[in-house]
Write a sequence for this structure.
């Protein structure tokens, strides 16, 4: 075995050894976001690049109290191995919340607790995608899903995302011409675009899928973060046997706890549980117990209301700065919720060039091209508003605007 030879802090000398990796690795993109986040660690940088929830809205004191209480009351059990499916009272809580929030009938048996909702995407890939199988997803699409599914070597089919949701004609055409295993989408405040599917488009998409074997993977990471507080229906309401929902505590509690879940019809759940066992036996049980204790002792609705009010304000500040400082030729979405605004620059302007120039001004943005499975999007940017104060938003957008103006005039 050869060891890398350290040559300085954080550096390793590359040895002459060649390693042979599975072919799937060559087809899987490195997370561009993670690479960019390394650049943005410098505290002088105002970063709109990542997708972090606001640190001010992580309820550390009450999570600490919940953790202390679980450990004091039931420490040995909470630190022991546990069931693959997850802590049943927590699954019951999630099921009850679907009923209350969306009127959906979900049984706790249809819920599997995962290590973040990102793990759901890996498990879904394992269970459904063989090499060369067909998968459809939104264009632009969530980078973490592109990465998770790529490991299973599918053939991707993009479906253009309009302001009111995915293009129904393109979706219908794709599933008519290919045996598409699933269509993956984010109906609420999509990452990266911030787009929310309209009520009509949801019904239309369900109607198209209903006539096929294609499943809908409904990634609902942002469903609780709709600023008007009004939830639109899940596709499970229309096509329950064909819909898998993924959910997350990351945006409403704390991402570091790595708590997510998947809701699936029982025959699919059986397969997901096998994949989960092979992957990690079960999710972090201590985190599950702490999350449940927190949910029992705190009012999560009040907490979510605080998050919504804060993000809504941050969005408004960012939109008004964009309207004030950006040239008219720059377009941007007006998200109803979530954490991102999607910016489209004039065709001739490269978002990579904007990224490079903005970093020199201590502002980080995320170029949009990695969100396109079939190339393109070279003039798009994803801008995060949840992780910056009002003051930073103003300063950062003003600086970004002057960078964009310079690029427009080149
Ligand atoms: N889906 C979407 C759309 C996301 O934006 C994210 C986080 N960026 C995830 C899933 C994964 O989140 P987590 O694993 O923290 O639940």
């Amino acid at each position: 075995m050869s060891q890398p030879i350290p040559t300085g802090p954080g550096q390793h000398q590359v040895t002459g050894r060649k390693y042979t990796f599975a072919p799937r690795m060559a087809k899987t993109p490195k997370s561009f976001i993670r690479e960019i986040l390394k650049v943005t660690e410098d505290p002088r940088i105002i970063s709109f690049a990542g997708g972090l929830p606001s640190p001010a809205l992580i309820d550390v004191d009450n999570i600490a109290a919940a953790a202390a209480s679980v450990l004091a009351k039931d420490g040995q059990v909470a630190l022991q191995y546990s069931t693959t499916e997850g802590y049943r009272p927590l699954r019951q809580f999630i099921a009850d919340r679907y009923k209350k929030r969306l009127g959906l009938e979900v049984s706790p048996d249809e819920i599997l607790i995962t290590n973040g909702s990102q793990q759901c995407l890996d498990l879904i890939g394992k269970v459904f995608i063989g090499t060369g199988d067909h998968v459809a997803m939104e264009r632009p699409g969530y980078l973490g899903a592109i990465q998770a599914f790529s490991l299973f070597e599918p053939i991707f089919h993009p479906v253009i995302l309009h302001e009111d949701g995915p293009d129904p004609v393109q979706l219908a055409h794709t599933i008519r011409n290919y045996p598409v295993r699933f269509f993956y989408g984010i109906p609420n405040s999509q990452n990266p675009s911030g787009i929310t599917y309209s009520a009509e488009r949801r019904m239309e998409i369900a109607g198209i899928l209903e006539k096929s074997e294609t499943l809908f993977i409904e990634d609902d990471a942002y469903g609780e973060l709709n600023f008007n507080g009004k939830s639109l229906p899940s596709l499970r309401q229309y096509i329950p046997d064909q819909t898998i929902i993924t959910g997350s505590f990351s945006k409403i509690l704390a991402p570091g706890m790595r708590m997510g879940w998947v809701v699936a019809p029982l025959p699919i759940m059986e397969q997901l549980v096998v994949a989960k066992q092979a992957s990690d036996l079960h999710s972090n049980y201590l985190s599950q117990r702490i999350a449940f204790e927190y949910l029992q002792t705190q009012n999560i609705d009040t907490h979510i209301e605080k998050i919504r009010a804060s993000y809504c304000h941050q969005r408004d500040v960012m939109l008004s700065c964009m309207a004030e400082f950006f040239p008219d030729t720059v377009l941007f979405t007006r998200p109803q919720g979530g954490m991102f605004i999607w910016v489209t620059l004039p065709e001739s302007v490269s978002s990579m060039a904007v990224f490079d120039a903005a970093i020199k001004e201590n502002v980080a943005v995320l170029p949009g091209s990695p969100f396109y499975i079939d190339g393109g999007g070279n003039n798009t940017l994803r801008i995060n508003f949840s992780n910056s104060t009002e003051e930073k938003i103003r300063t950062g957008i003003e600086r970004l605007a002057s960078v964009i103006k310079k690029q427009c005039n080149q």
Notes: The chain is about 40% helix and 15% strand.
